[in-house]
Amino acid sequence: MENSAAFPELLAGFRAGDSASINALCERYAPFLRAAVRRQLHPGLRTRFDSLDFVQDVWASFLAIPAERYTFDTPEALLAFLNRMAHNRVVEVFRQRFGTQKDDITRERAVNSEDGSDQIRAPVPTASQLVIADEEWDRLRGRFPEGHRVVLELLRDGHSYEDIARLSGVSLSTVNRIVRRLKDFTDS
């Protein structure tokens, strides 16, 4: 680890707020903290969290504690304290990600499947999807005579066949025929 004789000086510099002492402390103990985090980190969390994030959380918490609140006689005592902080932080995240329904990691799905079946879909169409749909609609409408386009518009608006027949002034059999013709175009 380090020379035990230099440890009190390093700690005194740290307490005084000396940036060189703080940096030296962090550099010396960061590898041990990272190893402690990696030992504790659940395999399901390793792909979602970097162990360095936990190390930085531990340092931020440690630096926020007033220096008068703790004393460390040996480097090992400081390391034990930092390891305990790392352990507590890892446990806290584990409980959050496995113990709450909101952040439950077991409810997540992979989005990188080969066939794209797990691809996440947006709740609303994208702008390009809307443009493509409008172009397709215009192409489809162009295949029908003007009188039939009224039926298509009412169908697109979600009206029932009976309502379409009544609103457009045609018979129900005409509406059925136009719908069959529409299905023939969309199937080809």
UniProtKB/TrEMBL annotation:
Whether DNA-binding counts among this entry's keywords is yes
- GO BP annotations listed: DNA-templated transcription initiation
Organism superkingdom: Bacteria
Gene Ontology molecular-function annotations: DNA binding; sigma factor activity
Task: List the Pfam families hit by this protein, alphabetically.
Answer: HTH_23
SUPFAM superfamilies recorded for this chain? Answer: Sigma2 domain of RNA polymerase sigma factors (SSF88946), Sigma3 and sigma4 domains of RNA polymerase sigma factors (SSF88659)
Q: Which UniProt keywords apply?
A: DNA-binding, Sigma factor, Transcription, Transcription regulation
The Swiss-Prot or TrEMBL record describes its family as follows:
Belongs to the sigma-70 factor family. ECF subfamily.
Q: Which PANTHER family match?
A: RNA POLYMERASE ECF-TYPE SIGMA FACTO, RNA POLYMERASE SIGMA FACTOR HI_1459-RELATED
Q: NCBIfam families under this entry?
A: sigma70-ECF
Q: Per its record, how is this protein called by name?
A: Uncharacterized protein
